[in-house]
């Protein structure tokens, strides 16, 4: 998925100006193509977004439950117990992502995804009945095991359905729906916590019980509606499937899968660009999870009540909807990723400076708005940037899993750098996240510079081997 210079431009013009395109011997006009892709959008994006939203909610509701009384009941106020409980989730989550994605085609998308959704939903529900922080650690580890391959699998599936300069808007819609759900998570948690005393259960227990029950229900939804890969789908007609596959082949030549072998995986893991994508995603993950896990706690430390801290955690996610869609639209329109990584990253950096170092709580709270607005825009851009510059299903599966693994590493770091003794300012943690935004800018700049040199060498005939092994392929900058 990348820029293809003159060859690519001609293909793009054909897709928008020609009256008809040939697919499998049949003629399909532009109206048929648009109708097909709209149907694909409605079948893929909503269901994936809905299920991922609750995987995110199930992952980050720990902070809301802590604020609602879990910290006292499970003795998490002692030392760094809360950070330990938060962090250990990511150990299996990081280690099992690549194996989980590599087996996706062999086990079957529907079978695998339904199983893991049901499994983590059951674990989430059980968290409402534990009585010690040791059992909470066990549940969080199990949650990490079952959720590990879900997010990279979703990114992999979405990337296989769309052309390179269509994917950013879809990823942004997918990401926004999930982020919005994450932003509403504290409010949902507050509402569920109002059930305290019902059936003799504390309010924080109801958060896990209800959200776990919803996830179990979504496991059934997954079985009936989760989409497979384009060549395996059962919801399009043969003509529509042929059209989708032809669009992908015309765009980047990898509509059909290639076999995954151990030698290929080793070769891909030796490619520095995949690690660069992972490092960039790690930098974007740290603000996301810092806010998800610790925002209610930070706001409570500013002096707001428990109820106010939960409710005030939601508004900062509002502006991110606008910034993310604007960035996605213009990034796809201009076929540029780099500028739309740097801009939002700088906004995030400014927000972190305000939240970490400003003295007035109102200014610190405004900084949270900037953090979310910038980071929510840059995250899908980094995903699109990496996806655009990788060809073949096998490499894309490794790239997606590696990127999310490193993002999870960033999330793990975020859970341990916000220490109880640093309350209420959490300056060390916020400063670390701030520094990683500088790393993001530097990594994106170096990677784009190297890609531009490779593109130039290919255009000038100084390079004989095709970029990414695909004739006519040019990196998206």
From TrEMBL:
Enumerate the transmembrane spans: 44-62, 82-103, 115-135, 141-161, 173-192, 204-226, 274-298, 310-331, 338-358, 364-386, 398-418, 430-453
Which keywords appear in this protein's UniProt record, sorted alphabetically?
Membrane, Transmembrane, Transmembrane helix, Transport
Q: What is its main location?
A: membrane
Origin superkingdom: Eukaryota
Q: Where in the cell is it found?
A: Membrane
Q: Name one Pfam family in it.
A: MFS_1
An annotated Gene Ontology molecular function: transmembrane transporter activity
Q: How does it sit in the membrane?
A: Multi-pass membrane protein
In this protein, which residues make up the domain named Major facilitator superfamily (MFS) profile?
44-456
| Region Disordered, annotated ranges | 1-24
InterPro entries the UniProt entry points to: MFS, MFS_dom, MFS_trans_sf
> Which GO cellular component terms are attached?
membrane
Q: What is this protein called?
A: Major facilitator superfamily (MFS) profile domain-containing protein
Organism in which the protein naturally occurs = Hebeloma cylindrosporum
């Amino acid at each position: 998925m990348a820029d293809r210079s003159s060859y690519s431009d001609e293909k793009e013009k054909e897709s928008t100006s020609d009256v008809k395109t040939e697919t499998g011997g049949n003629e399909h006009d532009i109206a048929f193509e648009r109708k097909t892709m709209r149907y694909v959008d409605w079948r893929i994006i909503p269901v994936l977004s809905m299920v991922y939203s609750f995987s995110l909610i199930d992952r980050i509701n720990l902070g809301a439950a802590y604020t609602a009384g879990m910290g006292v009941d499970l003795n998490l106020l002692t030392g760094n117990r809360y950070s330990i409980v938060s962090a250990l989730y990511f150990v299996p989550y990081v280690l099992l992502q690549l194996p989980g994605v590599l087996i996706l085609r062999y086990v079957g998308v529907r079978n695998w995804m339904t199983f893991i959704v049901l499994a983590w939903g059951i674990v989430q529900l059980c968290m409402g009945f534990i009585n010690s922080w040791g059992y909470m650690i066990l549940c969080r580890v199990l949650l990490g095991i079952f959720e590990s391959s879900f997010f990279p699998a979703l990114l992999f599936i979405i990337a296989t359905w769309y052309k390179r300069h269509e994917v950013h808007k879809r990823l942004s819609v997918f990401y926004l729906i999930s982020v919005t759900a994450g932003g509403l998570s504290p409010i949902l948690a507050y509402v569920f916590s109002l059930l305290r005393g019902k059936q003799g259960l504390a309010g924080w227990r109801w958060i896990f019980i209800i959200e776990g029950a919803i996830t179990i229900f979504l496991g059934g939804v997954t079985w009936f509606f989760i989409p497979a890969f384009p060549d395996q789908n059962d919801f399009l007609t043969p003509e529509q499937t042929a059209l989708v596959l032809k669009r992908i082949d015309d765009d980047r030549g990898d509509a059909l899968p290639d076999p995954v072998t151990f030698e290929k995986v080793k070769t891909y893991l030796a490619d520095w660009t995949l690690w660069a994508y992972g490092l960039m995603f790690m930098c974007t993950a740290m603000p996301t999870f810092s806010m998800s896990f610790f925002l209610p706690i930070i706001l409570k430390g500013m002096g707001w009540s428990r109820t106010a801290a939960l409710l005030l955690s939601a508004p900062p996610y509002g502006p991110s909807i606008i910034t993310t869609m604007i960035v996605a639209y213009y990034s796809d329109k201009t076929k540029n990723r780099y500028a739309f990584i740097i801009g939002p990253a700088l906004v995030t950096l400014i927000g972190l400076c305000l939240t970490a170092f400003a003295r007035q709580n109102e200014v610190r709270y405004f900084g949270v708005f900037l953090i979310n607005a910038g980071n929510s825009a840059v995250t899908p851009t980094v995903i699109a940037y990496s996806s655009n510059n990788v060809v073949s299903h096998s490499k894309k599966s490794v790239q997606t899993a590696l990127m999310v693994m490193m993002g999870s590493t960033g999330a793990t770091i975020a859970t341990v750098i916000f220490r109880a003794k640093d309350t209420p300012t959490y300056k060390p943690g916020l400063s670390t996240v701030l520094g990683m935004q500088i790393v993001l800018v530097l990594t994106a700049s170096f990677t784009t510079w190297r890609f531009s040199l490779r593109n130039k060498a290919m255009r000038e005939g100084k390079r004989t081997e095709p970029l990414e092994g695909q004739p006519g392929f040019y990196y998206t900058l």
